[in-house]
């Protein structure tokens, strides 16, 4: 490893200034993250001595590369979520899971975590929460349990999957940028996510119930805020079957894990193995699940082609802001790497002796606290760490664990600059202190457990 140079110092200072610029533009000027990141990336490139044309080319290439890999996956995932939400399949599954334990308070938290994680597999966090809220509030009324005993397990299950498992945007960005193995990341992600959801859910709910301000938390009279109203339930004649609902929701994860198993266990060149690899790619897995959902949960329930077309089209516009932010994060990564920041980060890691997963977690935590965006934190951190892993010849397991460490760091103590903070605040009519206790601390538990579990797996398997 070469010695630290004056150019490295310049790059570090310029990078810090660019990140500070992003924070100011988002938090104070109130620009959208896309514009804030674009302005900061251009400023960084010019300050680092790059010609303007080189900066623009690097930004365009970085944005195009990341969106080319992820844009299709997110679009298919959003349409799949739209069908699951409109058909009532997700709610059907939740009700089937919770009905047997609705009168058994001791089993209810575990069932809620399971339901939230199943619903969260194919759905974005916000969609999953909106689907689960009507069930959650009905359970509070029926069981007379404290709100936190039911709400916290649901939030923990959704958060753990959102932070740690593809095809959610954050983990998917990390896997794509780091060139980590998707199946390995998913398998290890399950090992990390399930205990994280239990600790941040049922276990933490027990502690919260002991606090007077949380124990007496009342059920809101109007649990939904404008813009987040639940989808009206389907009529009894159009209820989806439990088997069809479960098949569609588990299909993407099962196919992607099948691909990893085929690559690991089956001899190369075999027809069966090649077929599993082909249908287990994220795009094909989600496409097959979407087609199955259209057939079983759309046409099979009597919905006509026009209705299904509106459902699929209506799921895409909300992706615009997310895709622009992801593209901007990829563009920032491209400019940073073109300027040589990857070599600088490698020298920092080498000099500090810090394990890659710990460096990844710390950088993601810092960026999330500053920007309030898990997407920005994930894309920027993965972009900074990618050259380090490539030059260090990271193993398959190490690449997956670094991706999980980034996902864990991206949800550390989400506070007032986080959109999810205000969703929870409004849905449950909480004070700021109550929101910090229910949401910020819950996410911190997921984050810290993610780091601890990643460290254990790193030393055991890496």
Automatic annotation (TrEMBL):
Keywords recorded for this protein, A-Z? Cell membrane, Membrane, Transmembrane, Transmembrane helix, Transport
> Where does it primarily localize?
membrane
Q: Note whether Transport occurs among the keywords.
A: yes
Q: Where in the cell is it found?
A: Cell membrane
Segments spanning the bilayer are: 9-28, 34-54, 66-87, 107-133, 145-165, 185-207, 274-299, 311-332, 400-424, 436-461
Q: How does it sit in the membrane?
A: Multi-pass membrane protein
For the keyword Ribosomal protein, the answer is: no
Give the record's family classification.
Answer: Belongs to the GntP permease family.
The protein's name in its UniProt record: GntP family permease
């Amino acid at each position: 490893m070469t010695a630290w140079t004056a150019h490295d110092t310049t790059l570090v200072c310029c990078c810090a200034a660019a990140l500070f610029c992003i924070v100011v533009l988002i938090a104070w000027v109130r620009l959208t993250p896309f514009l804030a990141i674009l302005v900061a990336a251009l400023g960084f490139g010019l300050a680092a001595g790059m010609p303007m044309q080189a900066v623009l080319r690097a930004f365009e290439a970085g944005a195009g590369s990341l969106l080319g890999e992820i844009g299709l996956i997110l679009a298919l995932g959003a349409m799949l979520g739209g069908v699951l939400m409109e058909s009532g399949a997700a709610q059907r599954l939740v009700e089937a899971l919770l009905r047997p334990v609705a009168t058994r308070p001791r089993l209810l938290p575990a069932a809620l975590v399971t339901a939230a994680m199943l619903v969260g597999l194919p759905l974005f966090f916000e969609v999953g929460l909106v689907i689960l809220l009507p069930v959650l509030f009905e359970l509070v009324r029926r069981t007379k349990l404290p709100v936190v005993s039911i709400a916290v397990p649901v939030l923990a299950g959704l958060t753990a999957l959102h932070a740690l498992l593809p095809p959610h945007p954050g983990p998917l960005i990390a896997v794509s940028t780091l060139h980590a193995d998707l199946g390995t990341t998913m398998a290890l992600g399950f090992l990390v996510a399930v205990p994280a959801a239990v600790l941040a859910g049922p276990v933490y709910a027990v502690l919260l119930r002991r606090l007077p301000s949380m124990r007496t938390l009342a059920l809101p009279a109007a649990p939904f805020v404008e813009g987040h109203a639940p989808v009206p339930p389907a009529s009894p004649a159009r209820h989806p079957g439990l088997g069809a609902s479960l098949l569609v929701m588990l299909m993407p994860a099962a196919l992607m894990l099948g691909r990893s198993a085929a690559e690991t266990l089956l001899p190369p060149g075999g027809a069966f193995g090649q077929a599993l690899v082909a249908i287990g790619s994220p795009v094909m897995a989600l496409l097959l699940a979407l087609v199955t959902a259209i057939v079983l949960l759309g046409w099979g329930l009597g919905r006509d082609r026009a209705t299904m077309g509106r459902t699929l089209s209506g799921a895409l516009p909300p992706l615009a802001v997310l895709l622009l932010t992801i593209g901007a994060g990829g563009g920032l990564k491209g400019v940073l790497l073109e300027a040589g920041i990857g070599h600088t980060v490698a020298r920092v890691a080498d000099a500090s002796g810090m394990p890659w997963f710990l460096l990844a977690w710390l950088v993601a935590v810092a960026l999330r606290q500053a920007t309030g965006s898990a997407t920005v934190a994930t894309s920027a951190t993965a972009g900074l760490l990618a050259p380090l892993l490539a030059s260090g010849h990271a193993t398959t397991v190490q690449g997956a664990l670094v991706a999980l460490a980034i996902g864990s760091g991206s949800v550390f103590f989400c506070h007032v600059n986080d959109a999810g903070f205000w969703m929870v605040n409004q849905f449950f009519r909480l004070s700021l202190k109550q929101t910090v206790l229910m949401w910020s601390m819950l996410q911190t538990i997921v984050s810290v457990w993610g780091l601890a579990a990643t460290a254990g797996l790193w030393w055991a398997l890496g």
